[in-house]
User: Which sequence fits this backbone?
């Protein structure tokens, strides 16, 4: 189903990508490698340079420096070849509000060089696959946010792309639509398409990606599988909530460097733990022998949020 | 080539579904014509007999210009939403996109022109043109619509928002007033003559009048053609430049 036009195991290779808008440096020498057929997540806060990276890799913007190959083709010298191998779904739905879902898909398929008949077929297939058949003949202006986003991704698939770029595919979606979107991305990954997605949500990257790069202020500050990244902080910790400010201060002094997490606002301190009952019991006895200072406790499994906060706040 | 057909189909469909625009571009010129004929017409003396005979070609041209200027809004819409990125990432050329809009503009305005002509006819406009004159009038009108549409396209590419692009319609709506559209130029103050006689709307209107009413054309049709071709020669490369600038 999917054409493999280039050899090699990398769907995307970029070296030293730099871009500035006026005096604002958006990317400062970014290197990237995305394995063919993998789901790759670029994680970062607003303004980290995610969209700029996507725009460079999808040939829409030229980098000031560096080079990039997508699906085996150079993004500048072989722009047309790159464009025919990719699809882009941006942050804002790229659809005609006053055309129906079906008309939008047929138009995109026609622009991808399909015949009228093939285009109709592709549109029907995609509507079915994205559970939009019932809404096929309604104008997009009547669609919900989730439906719109699904149609938007479907529109990107009309040309059987090798590499699919999704720029913040779930930003602004309600939790249910977000979950549906995750299923869509996961199914793309299973079909062997290379997916490059950007997100601000660690949970999303954790759930979908084989490989994550964390971007902050135009530079990659960490990279690896979700598990590798999570190993960079304690796997689990015991969060202790103190009864009052006084108890909190006393406990903070007593723990010193042992505290791996501090949240004075919530009177909470965290210590490393393996989460087992005997160890938790021993820790509670050791830290609060009189049983008056700690009011509650919770075992917290490390999330990518912990990694992210640790990486970006230091 | 098929990209052009797909884009033209798209733009025509979007035009058809933008009910507000369809209504304004039909109702406004018709309303204006009625206002001119019934409110002011009695007070205006022209050499063509009834005032409706004088003003109808002017309203036709005004309507065409006004409709064409809406191209600025539709193009600005595409440039400011995500769809331009999608089209570009699919390697659809900017030329195909813009041409689609201009084709839709010509089709839209052909319909509007026919409607204005029908109303004019109903209130007493009696053109006296043979088939050749009709054809020539049509050619000039289509050229004029294309030229203004491409100019509007450039305005649409330049504008930061569709609302700003809409400002271009004021320009095309106003331009027929200091021309021979509604009153003969020699009734205007003399300092206006130079502009009124040498702006593009006047020769287009004068040639429509000459052709439709079987009056002497003078050089007006050559001036009209020169204006249209000249405007196209400026607008087309300008659009190319602005598109590249906009999608840097």
Assistant:
């Amino acid at each position: 189903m999917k054409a493999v036009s280039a050899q090699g195991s990398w769907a995307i290779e970029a070296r030293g990508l730099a871009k500035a808008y006026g005096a604002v440096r958006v990317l400062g020498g970014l290197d990237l490698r995305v394995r063919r057929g993998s789901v790759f997540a670029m994680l970062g806060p607003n303004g980290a340079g995610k969209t700029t990276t996507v725009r460079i890799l999808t040939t829409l913007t030229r980098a000031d420096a560096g080079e990039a190959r997508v699906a085996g083709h150079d993004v500048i010298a072989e722009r047309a070849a790159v464009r025919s191998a990719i699809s882009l779904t941006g942050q804002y739905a790229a659809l005609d509000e006053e055309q129906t879902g079906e008309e939008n898909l047929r138009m995109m398929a026609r622009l991808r060089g399909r015949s009228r008949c093939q285009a109709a077929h592709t549109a029907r297939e995609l509507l079915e696959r994205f559970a939009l058949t019932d809404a096929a003949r309604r104008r997009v202006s009547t669609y919900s946010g989730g439906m719109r986003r699904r149609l938007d991704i479907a529109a990107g698939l009309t040309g059987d792309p090798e590499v699919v770029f999704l720029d913040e595919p779930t930003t602004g979606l309600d939790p249910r639509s977000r979950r549906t979107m995750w299923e869509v991305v996961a199914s793309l990954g299973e079909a062997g398409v290379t997916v490059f997605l950007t997100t601000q949500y660690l949970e999303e990257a954790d759930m979908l990606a084989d490989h994550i790069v964390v971007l902050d202020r135009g530079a990659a500050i960490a990279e690896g599988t979700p598990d590798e990244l999570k190993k960079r902080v304690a796997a689990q910790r015991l969060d202790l909530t103190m009864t009052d400010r006084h108890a909190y201060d006393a406990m903070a002094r007593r723990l010193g460097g042992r505290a791996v997490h501090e949240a004075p606002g919530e009177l909470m301190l965290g210590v490393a733990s393996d989460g087992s009952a005997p160890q938790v019991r021993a820790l509670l006895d050791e830290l609060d022998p009189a049983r008056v200072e700690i009011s509650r406790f919770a075992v917290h499994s490390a999330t990518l949020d912990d990694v992210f906060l640790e990486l970006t706040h230091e | 080539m098929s990209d052009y057909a797909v884009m033209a189909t798209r733009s025509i469909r979007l035009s058809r579904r933008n009910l507000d625009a369809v209504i304004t571009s039909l109702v406004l010129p018709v309303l204006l014509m009625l206002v001119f004929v019934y409110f002011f017409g009695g007070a205006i003396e022209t050499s063509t007999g009834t005032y409706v005979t004088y003003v109808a070609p002017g309203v036709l041209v005004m309507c065409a210009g006004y409709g064409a200027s809406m191209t600025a809004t539709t193009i600005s819409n595409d440039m400011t939403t995500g769809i331009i990125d999608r089209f570009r990432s699919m390697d659809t050329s900017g030329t195909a996109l813009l041409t689609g809009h201009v084709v839709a503009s010509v089709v839209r305005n052909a319909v509007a022109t026919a409607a204005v002509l029908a109303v004019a006819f109903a209130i007493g406009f009696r053109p006296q043109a043979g088939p050749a004159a009709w054809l020539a009038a049509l050619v000039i009108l289509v050229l004029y619509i294309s030229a203004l549409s491409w100019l509007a396209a450039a305005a649409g590419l330049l504008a930061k928002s569709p609302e700003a692009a809409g400002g271009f319609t004021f320009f095309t709506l106003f331009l027929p007033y200091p021309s021979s559209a509604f009153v003969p130029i020699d009734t205007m103050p003399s300092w206006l003559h130079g502009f009124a006689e040498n702006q593009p709307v006047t020769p287009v209107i004068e040639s429509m009048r000459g052709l439709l009413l079987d009056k002497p054309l003078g050089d007006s049709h050559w001036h009209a053609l020169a204006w249209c071709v000249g405007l196209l020669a400026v607008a087309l490369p300008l659009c190319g430049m602005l598109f590249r600038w906009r999608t840097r």
Observations:
- Chain B has a mean pLDDT of 87.
- Residues 144 and 228 of chain B are 6 Å apart (CA to CA).
- Chain B touches chain A through 22 residues (CB under 8 Å).
